[in-house]
Amino acid sequence: MAATRRPGRNHLFVPGPTNIPDRVQRAMLVPSEDHRSVDFPALTKPLFEDTKKVYGSTDGTIFLFPASGTGIWESALTNTLCRGDKVLTARFGQFSHLWIDMAQRIGLDVVVQEEAWGTGADPQKIEEALRADTNHEIKAVMVVHNETATGVTSDIGAVRKAIDAAGHPALLFVDGVSSIGSLPFRMDEWKVDCAIAGSQKGLMLPAGLGVICVSPKALKVSEGAAGRNDRLAHVYFAWEDHRKQNPAGYFPYTPSLPLLYGLREALACLFEEGLENVYHRHHVLGEATRQAVAAWGLKTCAKDPKWNSDTVTAIVVPEGVDAAQIIKHAFVRYNLALGAGLSQVAGKVFRIGHVGDLNELSLLGAIAGAEMAMNDCGLKVTPGSGVAAAANYLRENPLNKN
Ligand code: PLP
């Protein structure tokens, strides 16, 4: 059966994939070309340098994989670690859970600090665990910067301070899938060793391009592990294969041309706006969303303002209300895609993604739609209350810093 036609634009407010700017879509409309041609490096070589800027890195090395963020998790782990290596991490949402699951399944010894969903990584606990590890058995600390399932941002600068305070040599791996390109990310300053991103969130592209920025320290660890027979297996995600070809502008296998052209245009969009402006815009839109939630008399999943994410807000519905019903109704009736509650919070939250290419009026559309859907589904909030609160905040807080 043909899909129902829904006139007008779909209002896409899941926290990824995000809206693709028209000019980025047009940039991806390219004929196929020879990815081994003499012309190809003119496209690719600047991409490696420019992509580093959204990571806040000059020292790092970028690898671009035809993959999603999940593949890049695997790339970070398998290029640096050996079977049975100990890694330290915290679980506080579905994505931190899935990364832990992957680490266990590929043969790592994962030390998990359980944190309440709605909170994030605890630098003090991380420091204590590292101090106790006097033999330096922990080889890496893994942290999800922005837990997309709960709308929580962890403080990576504080995690770095904790590692340094413990005087521990562990590598620092950060999942920046829903932060890089939207929230301040300071790879070099925070001495992040592997920073992981996917194309479909802050980079405003379709899914399919996995991006990792790797520190010189992690590259060295990876080289050092090369001769070991207990090294975690990796072939498709091997950095060494890319390192042989990337400097000349080529890849060890066929890259997605449209995504590379799209990346070039998306980076141009980010740089034209200015990264500091991009971060500021996300903060203002995040805060406007939180003002709306407060006006509805509801709570966010983030348990304290210090955890608030500026790319996604998870809104907790009262006991007896099914958030999944609100999400379905918003889509069917108002052509509005809200984010679902995942795993532990399924049915208990719905999420408004405010990440990527959006502005005041697009956000207000989502808030209006959420308000209508909630009321239609029996969750009575004062009509217009969220829109008014967000609009008032937005009128007083311009998106552009300058
Ligand atoms: N990490 C975070 C924080 C995410 O939000 C996601 C997906 O939403 C992933 C990892 C997995 O990325 P992908 O779906 O691109 O494999």
Biggest sheet strand line-up: 2-10-9-8-5-3-4
The CATH topology of the largest domain comes to Aspartate Aminotransferase, domain 2
Radius of gyration: 21 Å
Under CATH, the homologous superfamily of the largest domain reads: Type I PLP-dependent aspartate aminotransferase-like (Major domain)
- Class from helix and strand fractions: alpha/beta
Number of helices: 13
- The domain tally reads 2
Main sheet, how many strands, which sense, barrel? 7 strands, mixed
CATH architecture assignment name of the largest domain: 3-Layer(aba) Sandwich
Low-confidence stretches: none
Overall outline: globular
Task: Write the element-wise H/E pattern from the N-terminal end onward.
Answer: EHHEHEHEHEEEHEEEHHHHEEHEEHH
Q: Which small-molecule ligands are present, each listed once? A: pyridoxal-5'-phosphate
**Which class of the largest domain in CATH terms?**
Alpha Beta
Helicity level, as a percent range?
40-55%
- N-to-C terminal Cα separation, in Å? 51 Å
- Overall mean pLDDT stands at 97
Total number of β-strand segments?
A: 14
> What percentage of amino acids are in beta strands?
15-25%
Family: Belongs to the class-V pyridoxal-phosphate-dependent aminotransferase family.
Cofactor: pyridoxal 5'-phosphate
InterPro entries: Aminotrans_V_dom, Aminotrans_V_PyrdxlP_BS, PyrdxlP-dep_Trfase, PyrdxlP-dep_Trfase_major, PyrdxlP-dep_Trfase_small, SP_NH2Trfase/AEP_transaminase
Pfam families: Aminotran_5 (PF00266)
